[in-house]
Specification:
By secondary structure, this protein is an alpha+beta fold. It has 13 helices and 15 strands. A 5-stranded mixed β-sheet has the order 10-12-13-15-14, covered by helices on one side. Strands 1-8-3-6 form a 4-stranded antiparallel β-sheet.
Length: 470
């Protein structure tokens, strides 16, 4: 047993050091010192030089970044080793390390690292292992954070896209209930009049003509619509029809002319005319509202289908992928962002482009990052071009934007992990790193050519993964 209490404490509290030779621990203790912190005291602050290796003996240190608020991005507890490590390229701390309870930390200056590797080789090997594990954990953490940020953006945009048709369907359903009630009242009123068979047939015939007119898809010229409403309003006023100002626009929407109303008047008489026209107007309104609900539901269904296609739900990890459907579903996911900037999208898709064997959901991460970056690079009213074609045994996808371009000094680093030109909190620097790794996984290639006003990312992917090591 060592006579040095600190050596014994290191053996007892730090699993990594338990079986180290006595001389290595003695060297470590002789060259380091102890830092004691009260609750709320800082071990280091953001941008401080990363000069020390830390071994946490008691308490807890939480590291928070400027963009993470009160959420700890790293926690150092008893038994853990942190700070800078041998062979680490970390030059400064990215966040602030604060003690959340009374804490004791053993620290070793990085100036001792060369001697450490000579005097304590086993310890040096284990610290390199700690660094490797930490790089892996930090990378995975940042990748997951980047995915969550992307998911948050997509969710916000999708929620906006879903809100419009959902709200339209809700409003139409509310109005539909009122129209059905109005139709029920007019039906009772007409029944009370004991109309002749010819009069009832005239009303039914007008309902059919109105329904047919309301179903026409071709839009009417606004001036022609206004003239039609004015002519109908004049006719209704002349015949003393109640609520003429409400009926005229509805009847005009159904392409009913005053001459048709003359026929109805002749069949039902002036006393029943208002009830008959209200009945017809209710039929037209109900049909129009049902069409709006159908249109809204169709839009919601299309969005849900796009989400399923985007995420490749209920499908095997590797499948034959239609790249055009993947690009289109990605555009739907980013639709809100495209609309916000009034971006024009041009699709130059090769209709003969074959399907490829790939991880479909991962390919859509490529398109999401490339298109999202392109939108960010463009000013309002920008132009985005997506082009596909086949070349040799590959398919080629080009994403072109007319933004400011990528600065020459930045271009060599854009695929580096954690490199970003975006403000703090808006990017992690992993988007293009993810793109690069997914393309590598598919044995593909990505190139970029950029100048002010035109940036082109070109992705080449093989037709098949069969027989390749993925």
């Amino acid at each position: 047993m060592s006579s040095n209490p600190l050596v014994e404490e290191l053996r007892r509290t730090i699993p990594l050091l338990t079986d180290l030779p006595e001389e290595e621990l003695q060297w470590l203790v002789a060259n380091g010192d102890i830092v004691e912190l009260q609750t709320g005291h800082r071990l280091f602050k953001a941008s401080d030089p990363a000069e020390y290796l830390f071994i946490y003996l008691e308490g807890e240190i939480q590291v928070r970044f400027a963009d993470s608020g009160d959420v700890a991005r790293y926690i150092g507890r008893q038994g853990m080793i942190g700070g800078t490590l041998p062979y680490s390229r970390m030059q400064s701390f990215m966040g602030e390390g604060v003690a959340i309870e009374p804490t004791r930390v053993f620290r070793l200056s990085r100036s001792h690292f060369p001697e450490l590797l000579l005097r304590a080789p086993r310890l040096g090997e284990r610290l390199v292992g700690v660094m490797t594990d930490r790089v892996r954990e930090v990378t995975m953490s940042e990748v997951n954070r980047d995915k969550l940020m992307a998911l948050g953006k997509l969710s916000a945009g999708l929620a906006h896209e879903l809100n419009n048709p959902a709200s339209a369907a809700f409003r139409a359903a509310q109005t539909l209930c009122k129209s059905l009630e109005a139709m029920r009242r007019t039906a009772h009123a007409l029944d009370d009049r004991a109309l002749s068979t010819d009069a009832r047939c005239a009303i039914a015939g007008l309902e059919d003509r109105a329904a047919e007119g309301a179903r026409r898809d071709e839009p009417r010229d606004p001036l022609a619509q206004a003239d039609a409403e004015e002519a109908l309003l004049a006719w209704l006023d002349r015949e003393s029809v109640a609520e003429a100002w409400e009926l005229a626009p509805v009847l005009a929407d159904a392409r009913l002319a005053p001459e048709v109303l003359d026929e109805l008047l002749a069949a039902v008489g002036p006393d029943a005319l208002t009830d008959a026209l209200k009945r017809v107007a209710s039929i037209i309104t109900v049909q129009r509202l049902a069409g709006e609900i159908e249109s809204a539901a169709t839009r919601i269904s299309e969005l849900i289908r796009s989400v399923k296609e985007y995420s490749y739900m209920d499908q095997a990890p590797i499948q034959n992928v239609d790249l055009h459907r993947g690009l289109d579903s990605t555009l739907v996911m980013l639709g809100h962002k495209l609309k916000k900037k009034s971006v024009t999208v041009e699709r130059n898709f090769d209709p003969a482009l074959p399907q490829i064997e790939a991880y479909g959901a991962e390919l859509n991460q490529i398109w999401t990052n490339l298109i999202d970056n392109a939108i960010d690079a463009m000013t309002d009213g920008g132009h985005l071009t997506l082009r596909t074609y086949a070349r040799g045994g590959d398919v080629v996808i080009e994403v072109t934007d007319d933004g400011a371009g990528i600065a020459p000094e930045v271009r060599p680093r854009i695929f580096e992990p954690f490199f970003t030109t975006k403000p703090v909190g808006e990017g992690t620097g992993l988007g293009l790193d993810v793109v690069f790794r997914i393309i590598q996984k598919h044995h593909g290639k990505i190139d970029v050519v950029s100048a002010p006003g035109k940036t082109v990312f070109t992705v080449r992917l093989p037709l098949a993964l069969s027989g390749r090591t993925v």
